[in-house]
Amino acid sequence: MATERTLALIKPDAVESKIEGDVLAMICQSGLNILAIKKVKLSASEAALFYAVHDGKPFFADLTSFISSGPLYAVALEGENGVVSWRTLMGATNPAEAAEGTIRKRFGKAINRNVVHGSDSVENAKIEMAIFFSELEYVK
Ligand code: CMP
Fold this sequence. Notes:
The chain is α+β, with helices and mostly antiparallel strands. Helices cover 40% and strands 20% of the residues.
């Protein structure tokens, strides 16, 4: 298995519910290594850039207004099979379909309030991580 980096977001619903510490604890206990972390509030245009792949979908306006509605944490992760490892820990996009023991099963309220985001490939992880971090910010 390859060591991969991926981007996690701990979304505004998690910050509003004050569960970002619980999410970070689950990340640390999973064995994924945090390389960098940053609290950010996205503007509407930054949110549209981040989720550009979803532009044109019916939920795009809700998605971008929600992700820019309050502070979030951007977290750069690294680990064995990092992209899939983080997506497995998050659970299914729709919390109603998420497996036991996952973050979305534990904390997610709905598909559009699902607590965390994760890159879907190594290629997209590179693009998404560069939105929040420079190479110099990663600490092993
Ligand atoms: P995320 O992993 O951040 O990637 C895109 C987000 O769009 C996804 O989590 C969901 O929160 C949201 N999303 C995906 N599908 C839908 C949908 N059908 N309705 C509303 N939001 C959605």
